[in-house]
Design goal:
It is built from 8 helices and 4 strands; from the N terminus they run H-H-H-E-H-H-E-E-E-H-H-H. The protein is mostly helical. Helix 1 crosses helix 7 and helix 3 packs antiparallel against helix 8. It starts with a helix and ends in a 9-residue tail after the last helix.
Length: about 200
């Protein structure tokens, strides 16, 4: 089980291409149904999450979460503020209709080398669901998984275990994955006029 954040960050950079190939395999060449893949990912997530202390990391708290309008009153209440004051002090100007908190997260505290969230059960839904591995349809969030691989020890370890479990099938599919990956990476598509 890898928990060293520096090693995980470096692996995220060094393994990006391989992780994207594995993503391509999961999306188009894996024999598991979406439900079977979800069950496997949920099983691996439970195993890994039970061994990870999020308070030793909280790298996810460095991200600026998007919040829903309906969450603002309870978030403001955690800090003893009015919704208006909370918006002025902690919310970025809306873009594309999204409400995003300004970093650093106003609920993140650090004490004795440990980082923790003071929002508790009031935390934004996106924060509570992070790293999104227990949601259905894992295969639809694979770009986010690859992006979070170098940030979150849970994502890193789940993805590594998933690669290990599916390695024989991935190896067999690798030529097709490589072909698809080169095509996707080039950003060009050539269609046969006959089709």
């Amino acid at each position: 089980m890898e928990t060293d954040l520096t090693k995980i960050r470096i692996a995220g950079e060094q393994q990006l291409k391989e992780n994207m190939k594995f993503r391509a395999f999961l999306k188009g060449h894996c024999s598991l149904s979406t439900q079977e893949l979800d069950r496997l990912v949920h099983e691996l997530t439970r195993e890994v999450a039970a061994q990870i202390d999020c308070d030793a990391c909280r790298k996810c708290c460095d991200l600026a979460p998007v919040v829903e309008v309906g969450e603002l009153p309870r978030l403001a209440a955690v800090l003893g503020m009015s919704v208006g004051d909370f918006r002025r002090r902690h919310v970025k100007p809306p873009q594309f209709g999204e409400i995003e908190l300004m970093p650093p997260c106003p609920f993140l505290r650090e004490e004795g080398g440990r980082r923790y969230c003071i929002a508790g059960d009031a935390k934004p839904t996106l924060c509570a669901e992070y790293p999104f591995l227990m949601k259905p349809d894992f295969w639809t969030r694979l770009v986010g998984v690859v992006e979070n691989y170098g940030r979150c020890p849970i994502v890193y370890n789940v993805y590594e275990r998933l690669k290990e479990r599916l390695r024989p099938e991935f190896q067999k599919a690798k030529p097709a994955v490589e072909e698809w990956f080169v095509w996707e990476e080039s950003g060009t598509v050539e269609w046969d006029e006959e089709e």
